[in-house]
Amino acid sequence: MAPADRTGGDETGTVDAGALGRRSFLRLTGAAGASLLFSAAAGAPSTQALTGVAGQASVARKRRAYVLVVDGARPDELGTALTPHLRALRDAGRNFPAARSLPVMETIPNHVMMMTGVRPDRSGVPANAVYDRSEQTIRDLDRPSDLRFPTVIERLNRKGFTTGTVLSKEYLFGIFGTRATYRWEPAPIVPVSGHAPDAFTMDAALSMVEELDPNLVFVNLGDCDRMGHSDLTGTTLQAARTAALVDVDTQVGRFVDMLKTSGRWRDSVVIVLADHSMDWSDPHQIISLQPALDADPMLAGNVVVAQNGGADLLSWTGPADRRAPALRRMRDIALATDGVLSVHEPAQLRLGDNAGDLVVYCRSGWRFSDPAPYSNPIPGNHGHPATQPIPFFVSGGHRLVRQGTSSAAARTVDVAPTVGTLFGLGDPRGGYDGTSRL
Ligand SMILES: [Zn+2]
User: Fold this and answer.
1) pLDDT tens, 323-376?
2) 326 vs 7, 69, 138, 183, 293, CA distance in Å?
3) Which numeric CATH code is attached to 286-381?
4) Cα(106) to centroid of ligand 1, in Å?
5) Separation of 310 CA from ligand 1 center, angstroms?
6) What is the pTM (predicted TM-score) of this model?
7) Please, which residues bridge with residue 353 across strands?
């Protein structure tokens, strides 16, 4: 994995310069010979750690943390005979079988919780899709400005450490933007799914570690989630999911091998977790609240539903003086609908103002499809309480890594404090909402 065709020099970003700011580009060659494009903060070191050739344990001692997110994995899926590398990694560290994703159990908010250590009422990111009142539209929270709390990435950079993001999904690359010292720009992107396959993502992670060697690397592996979502046939769903699990295990195995053969393992903390779990709905168990709300004379035309698979976020857009009775009616209609589990005010779930006026969860085996019954055709969904259990373990060769099993209910929000402990970061303003698991 030799560096090739380095095109370092600073330049002003030509793509959305306002959001990306000054950056430089690095082109490296991955294991399969493919060209990998990274962007880097202006002035970031681009030629460090070039001694990291596989087989030579000659890298400098330093603190290293790697967060590997197996997107959408269930805790029972990692650590079986199908996933021997993940099982070995888990058994080398501390496992948290009671671990949980946090509301809303979606990809963007839980990745933000991992990197900030705070809940959505402080981060500004409660769900994947929300109703944006100022723009009067439903949109993904995929802009760098949507994330309103300092991440551990920026906080490490300020202390002189270097960081990297290798995020397979376009919207994750979007929201984390140019925060990290080095960012992989995901490619190739699978049409419709909007993510890069795990083999490419891992090529990028390996290149980033071996050639740029950031102190912290944050990796999202998207195949398990996308295989869970995108296959519609049912009979092949299990086979596709199994294939994705076997493949992600192979990819994680490549990463651990690299850490060991390059001499980095003894300095490394490797956190493996999922952002949420996955639940599969029966074809006839679909909930569409928008038509039911629009059929009510009091509510018609004044409720917007931001659908998040297993959770619907309802926003009242009518006159403020009719809001209180309208919310009561919205709650009653939702609770009277087959498949609805519960209705919550956003504050109960610590979601903040962006989550709208009411959050509706579905039962296990159901999904929301809004605004229309055909809007969400995919059987695999998450966002509801059935998808809270996640795999979570803290491994690696660092002396702070403990072994065994903990009964503590680790959560996605615990990742930032865990990373912070390794690097001696103080608490952010207002403190963390999570707990260090080192
Ligand atoms: Zn996800």
Assistant:
1) 999 999 999 999 999 999 999 999 999 999 999 999 999 999 999 999 998 888
2) 58, 40, 20, 45, 10
3) 3.30.1360.110
4) 6
5) 12
6) 0.91
7) none
